[in-house]
Amino acid sequence: MAHTFRGCSLALIFIITWLLIKAKIDACKRGDVTVKPSRVILLGSTVNISCSLKPRQGCLHYSRRNKLILYKFDRRINFHHGHSLNSQVTDLPLGTTLFVCKLACINSDEIQICGAEIFVGVAPEQPQNLSCIQKGEQGTVACTWERGRDTHLYTEYTLQLSGPKNLTWQKQCKDTYCDYLDFGINLTPESPESSFTAKVTAVNSLGSSSSFPSTFTFLDIVRPLPPWDIRIKFQKASVSRCTLYWRDEGLVLLNRLRYRPSNSRLWNMVNVTKAKGRHDLLDLKPFTEYEFQISSKLHLYKGSWSDWSESLRAQTPEEEPTGMLDVWYMKRHIDYSRQQISLFWKNLSVSEARGKILHYQVTLQELTGGKAMTQNITGHTSWTTVIPRTGNWAVAVSAANSKGSSLPTRINIMNLCEAGLLAPRQVSANSEGMDNILVTWQPPRKDPSAVQEYVVEWRELHPGGDTQVPLNWLRSPPYNVSALISENIKSYICYEIHVYALSGDQGGCSSILGNSKHKAPLSGPHINAITEEKGSILISWNSIPVQEQMGCLLHYRIYWKERDSNSQPQLCEIPYRVSQNSHPINSLQPRVTYVLWMTALTAAGESSHGNEREFCLQGKANWMAFVAPSICIAIIMVGIFSTHYFQQKRRHSCPWTGS
Hints:
This protein is mostly beta strands. It is built from 5 helices and 49 strands. The longest helix has 24 residues, at 2-25. Mean pLDDT is 86; it is low at 1-9 and 621-659. Residues 1-23 form the signal peptide.
């Protein structure tokens, strides 16, 4: 198709050029232009161009008034007064150059006399890398070659094939850009060792050149068609009994198979001889989608491989899961007799699951009496139950697909933080790039060799202790004292991190807060109540919403100053604790109205202040104040007071406002 397009394009260029010349030259009625030695010249050659007027075609019959002008395209290159003009031209570029001769008379426009095209090119180079192929046993012989550099001239190519008994076939191509020809003949396998010789010759006006002959046999050039009708069968739905089937041309002797998991770039390759359209595959993985392709060849040493067949995609059957689940748990006391156990486990890897996991089986058993046992089937990766706080409990969890279950993971439920001497020391959590936290620790004071493994656990910090927050963990060998946690880590979120040291049926733990990225909180705490207690006040506040904390909080600050005062406020800085939402202040003066507010700090800075509240400490009386801005409102008075006492209170600096 590409050769046809180029041929049509060249023909169109010649037609347009011819029409332009015809329009401009007007059939050379007034004179002639001659070119010597030829209008087709070799690159670098010199030509002589002559322009002459025909009789009585000059300017009013006065030859001295004739001014002949020679143009190269639209650029004037020479002129002469008289009936003729001669010009020598050099350094013409490759391709076609148009020369036009015009006559200029006094007080009149230039008149076109005649013109000529000069074609500059090179002789054909020797065609290289001639090769022939027949696609399929029923195909036809076609040959390709490399033309070499462009001749910039009209060039013909002749392809010749000679065979046994002086048989000769010939095909011509009149496309300047020709590099492919199909003889339209079919070589048959009756004499597979018979020799054939192909040769291509290129000819143009400046010379000719022939390729070296290419000699081949039927087996050398026939490329089989790609195999077709590929299918796969699994005997008894087992991945270990897999057979690949396909169809081939009759003379195929050798096949090569390649296959890979659909998500892989690397192929597994197998060569088989005399397969007769089938081959057993023994190393496929269960529950995996594979891509299969096959190629064929007629001879072990001669000829070429066919193109690869179209891909067959197929999924292998499931097999029973292997491996064991990674199980972890949390304990929470409910009351003096009951505790809540929350179990968590990670999905098996694809290679371990070996199929679609349908459910998980959880078995909970009390070991001391051996009687109490609970079994549960769940499709989730967590399970929560309530059990007595007495007794020794163990749990087993396994995963099941359509072919069977994995081996159960068994763990004993114990107090993970009971052994203080096993607690890891000097735990730290530092940001390690985007969405990563590096946790480091020192071995426990107890003999470090007693530690069998460390477990690093983390979850988003929620002040309310939300048990529904996802739990993450990883296990670390006893010789490691650091872990990079990255799973489910988000920027500007604070994480509660525990490091457990496990030794037999004992465990010790330490905890720390950490974040991968932080900045100053977006808001300060909201003061919701101020109460007076024995000459001091107790400030209560609402926690900052998690999405506004922007990392781990380090401190709260409580600020206060006298109302309408220009002095700097006093402050009290409180270390942040997750469950804390109140704090006493005992340095306020009685009967003075104060303005109070709070801020929060991360390692990156301090938040803007929260809401402002006003409060007036009443001294001996016990007041509870819910104070709106600019008012000190006493709304609850404890005790019975006389009328005189009320009158005295009205004289103090804190205004009394009833409601």
